[in-house]
Amino acid sequence: xxxxxxxxxxxxxxxxxxxxxxxxxxxxxxxxxxxxxxxxxxxxxxxxxxxxxxxxxxxxxxxxxxxxxxxxxxxxxxxxxxxxxxxxxxxxxxxxxxxxxxxxxxxxxxxxxxxxxxxxxxx
Length: 123
Description:
By secondary structure, the protein is an alpha+beta fold. It has one domain. 50% of the residues lie in helices and 15% in strands. The protein has 3 helices and 4 strands; from the N terminus they run H-H-H-E-E-E-E. The protein has helices at 2-5, 16-66, 74-79; strands at residues 88-94, 101-106, 112-115, 121-122. A 4-stranded antiparallel β-sheet has the order 1-2-3-4, covered by helices on one side. The mean pLDDT is 86.
């Protein structure tokens, strides 16, 4: 049996079986890596949406410290220094101080986050 795997003197290189095994192993590792990479990208997109929502909430609180009876809008957030991440959409559902509600989602993410008037962020 071992005589089949023994190489003749003077022959160099790999056998076809060895090359096929290496290609199969590389293919399996590549498929695992691609799946993990796409999952990490989605997590990153979701984290960007959550971070933008947290920042928008903080900026809205700064607006309410100046105008307690005011209603916050997207243009108010921008004028107070808020800059959204590319492809993240922050929507203000209710912009008053007593019932502030905002949502955020990334176009490539799979979650939508919302924040209430006390700053509690949920999915």
